[in-house]
Design brief:
Elements (H helix, E strand, L loop, with lengths): L3 E2 L12 E2 L4 E3 L11 H17 L2 E2 L8 E4 L4 E3 L6 E2 L29 H8 L1
Antiparallel strand pairs: 1-2, 3-5, 4-7, 5-6
Organism: Pseudomonas lactis
GO molecular function, one term: ATP binding
Protein name: Protein kinase
């Protein structure tokens, strides 16, 4: 996941979240070489999702464009704009990028913590 940094300075009296700058490419735009360790990338994404889920958070928009690989090969999960706490995740509207959504998210069901794993396989 991206890191939320402590205070960003006194730029404005308005509260703000300051995130680290990640110099790298998204999974959707990355160029991979023959020696790319895909299993390690998938492992990092899975560990990131497991960490998110351990905090009862559902991302709701896991896709290649929301996964970035920094210059050291470290995966970062981005864009928590649609995320929700698991307890408050019941929804009656389709939220996320349809092509990467798990099939059960198309119905009127309570969202469980497992659908993002479907997105991981599609990414």
């Amino acid at each position: 996941m991206t890191t939320i940094l402590p205070e960003g300075g006194a730029v404005s009296p308005q509260p703000a979240i300051v995130l680290e700058f990640i110099n790298g490419e998204t999974l959707s735009s990355a160029s991979f070489s023959a020696d790319t360790n895909y299993l390690h990338l998938i492992w990092q994404i899975s560990c990131g999702l497991a960490d998110i889920h351990s905090h009862e958070i559902i991302h709701r928009d896991i896709k290649p464009g929301n996964i970035k690989i920094d210059g050291e090969g470290v995966v970062k999960i981005l864009d928590f704009g649609l995320s929700r706490n698991n307890a408050a995740a019941e929804t009656r509207s389709i939220i996320g990028t349809p092509v990467f959504m798990a099939p059960e998210l198309w119905g009127d069901q309570t969202i469980a913590l497992t659908p993002p794993l479907m997105s991981t396989h599609l990414a």
